[in-house]
Specification:
Elements lengths: L4 H7 L13 E8 L6 H7 L7 E7 L10 E6 L7 H15 L4 E5 L3 H5 L3 E3 L2 H7 L18 H13 L4 E6 L1 H16 L5 E6 L17 H22 L3 E6 L6 H10 L3 E2 L2 H6 L4 H17 L5 E6 L2 H4 L1 H16 L1 H6 L2 H11 L2 H9 L2 H8 L15 H18 L9 E6 L1 H4 L5 H19 L5 E6 L9 E6 L4 E6 L2 E6 L9 H15 L15 H4 L4 H8 L2
Parallel strand pairs: 3-4, 3-6, 6-7, 7-12, 8-10, 8-11, 9-10
Antiparallel strand pairs: 1-2, 2-13, 4-5, 12-13, 14-15
Bound molecules: 1,6-di-O-phosphono-beta-D-fructofuranose.
1,6-di-O-phosphono-beta-D-fructofuranose (FBP) binds next to loops.
């Protein structure tokens, strides 16, 4: 594979491991755990893996000789910068335990596990992918691992390759499935451990013990770079309003972090829209007010950040989507036979009156997106809904109305952007390169410790990486019961933006100033080589969250 000059230099980067992982480790057990909610239900569903203790690693002055380990690894769901380093860390970790350990990668996500598609990851392959972005070392996929048949089929290949542990690198849904698989294998005495690693650019897989999911740092830095560039262009030409949608499926962590980094004129936080029970019109009017206030000062330009999950957080839309999810799940076979032109009417006829009216009022494109296939986990594919255009056009109409009434005298010309895929496979920042390598290496230590149903946990992340704390937490600890595909299921609780937490409060204290003044920040591109304050800073979200502790 031909490499660019930067790729060559980057290949030589040695991720900085937490000091505790640089030698042999011993396990320190913490207190027994409970799930975040619905304890009785989760306990009943996970009799073998519920209530296990948190664990922390400490240096072991008297290391025991390790036995060779055969380990399988799966990349699951959307790409996130640093996935390759998790695999590299895992490889180095099991090789440290024994030179005869082997790592097998299942191809194209959980589907490769079920279909027995795999490759042995040798040192030669691993070295090609150190510190690189992407998931192309083995590919990823969104097949949902949930049935006994899939688990049994997967077990066949694990037995064949003498694999004793499986590492699933994924987001909340994939780690939920990792927990179910761990429970199943433990229950049938399969002799296979399952360990999860917290991945997602969305930043919504986090709690006390998982301070951030990997990829969030790099992706938000990439988006902030381009938002900064747009802001500089915007401030140079002074003639456009830029509506910028940012990935993040449900939670607004990405939009909020980018706002903290770039100081735009407006940033919508979906969780606030929901908490304030805002309608789509409220959201539109809020933007129109800012456009009008800036126009009064002669500034007919600006930037608006929009989280991609916004639609699902507008309470009326949320109720509509919930009913649609159940309707489409219950009538999937019939719906599939209806020709496309008649599907809208079919939905209107089958919804409750209130939701039917909302659905009928939506622009054709948005209505169609809401009725398209869910992803395998039952989620609406929000990245396909063009919310930025919907909002821009509605703001345009609102301002035209105000102009007709003599209440607006400015100009409004909108441009649209969507940043998502641009950041998911970027070369990991130093933070993500170090964090991911540590997560993978730590997963090897968890396997060696004999645990199952645990997630690799590396903490203390605002400190230099050598001071990071390493250990594991039972995945069941993060679970609650939620409605999925029309039934209650145990799932890892998504961490949404908290309106009482430091990152949002910081943003809220500044946003009125950012709206009216032009206070843009231009973060520039990720730097891989140079002083630590330029290259190794974690996200502002993480820094504000930790500053309060
Ligand atoms: P994960 O939760 O699997 O990490 O994926 C996150 C994400 O990037 C979302 O931000 C986005 O809505 C979605 O994936 C897009 O999915 P796809 O890659 O299937 O288009």
């Amino acid at each position: 594979m031909k490499k660019s000059a930067l790729q060559q230099a980057r290949a030589a980067y040695q991720p900085k491991l937490p000091i505790v992982l640089t030698g042999a480790v011993r396990v320190v057990e913490g207190k027994a755990t409970e799930s975040v909610a619905d304890q009785a239900e989760i306990k009943a569903l996970f009799p073998n893996t519920y209530g296990l203790p948190e664990i922390r690693f400490e240096k072991n002055p008297a290391p025991a000789a390790g036995k060779p380990l055969n380990v399988g690894v799966i990349l699951s769901g959307g790409q996130a910068p640093g996935g390759h380093n998790v695999i590299c860390g895992l490889f180095d970790g099991i090789k440290k335990i024994s030179r005869d350990s082997r790592l097998y990668g299942f191809l194209m996500g959980p589907g490769g596990f079920v279909d027995h598609q795999y490759v042995e990851l040798t040192a030669e392959i691993i070295d090609e992918y150190r510190n690189t972005g992407g998931f192309d070392i083995i590919g990823s996929g969104r097949t949902k691992l949930e049935t006994k048949e899939q688990f049994d089929k997967g077990l066949e290949i694990l037995k064949q390759l003498d694999i004793k542990a499986l590492v699933i690198i994924g987001g909340d849904d994939s780690n939920t499935n990792a927990a179910i698989l761990a429970e199943y294998y433990k229950n049938i005495g399969a002799g296979v451990q399952v360990i999860g690693c917290p991945k997602t650019i969305d930043g919504d897989l986090k709690n006390e013990m998982i301070e951030t999911s990997f990829g969030f740092d790099t992706a938000t830095k990439v988006y902030s770079e381009v938002i900064g560039n747009i802001q500089r262009d915007c401030n140079s030409a002074k003639k456009y309003w830029h509506f910028i949608k940012l990935m993040g499926r449900s939670a607004s962590h990405i939009a909020l972090e980018c706002a903290l980094q770039t100081q735009p004129n407006h940033c919508i936080v979906s969780e606030e829209v929901e908490a304030k029970n805002m309608t789509l019109d409220d959201v539109v009017n809020q933007i129109a007010d800012i456009v009008a206030a800036r126009a009064e000062k002669g500034m007919n330009f600006g930037t608006v950040l929009i989280p991609e999950g916004l639609i699902e957080f507008i309470p009326a839309m949320k109720a509509l989507i919930a009913e649609l999810n159940d309707l489409l799940a219950a009538n999937a076979a019939e719906f599939a036979t209806i020709e496309a032109a008649k599907q809208r009417q079919y939905i209107i006829d089958h919804l409750s009156n209130e939701n039917a009216a909302i659905y009928a009022s939506l622009p054709e494109g948005v209505a169609r997106q809401l009725s398209l296939d869910r992803d395998p986990h039952g989620n609406v594919q929000v990245s396909l809904i063009e919310t930025e255009k919907l909002l821009g056009e509605m703001v345009g109409r609102c301002l035209a109305q105000r102009k007709a009434e003599g209440k607006f005298n400015g100009k409004f010309s909108a441009l649209y952007h969507f940043f998502g895929y641009e950041g998911r496979c970027a070369d990991p920042s130093n933070f993500d390169a170090d964090y991911c390598y540590a997560l993978g290496y730590n997963a090897a230590c968890l396997i060696n410790a004999g645990v199952t149903g645990y997630m690799s946990s590396v903490r203390n992340l605002t400190k230099p990486s050598v001071q990071w704390i390493a250990g594991g937490i039972p995945i069941t600890m993060m679970m609650n019961m939620e409605r999925r595909h029309g039934a209650m299921k145990p799932v890892i609780q998504k961490a949404l933006v908290r309106l009482d937490d430091a990152p949002f409060l910081k943003f809220a204290s500044k946003r009125d100033k950012w709206a009216i003044e032009t206070s843009y920040m231009y973060p520039g591109p990720i730097q891989y080589f140079g002083p630590a304050e330029v290259c190794d800073q974690p996200t502002m979200t993480l820094r504000y969250e930790h500053a309060g502790k």
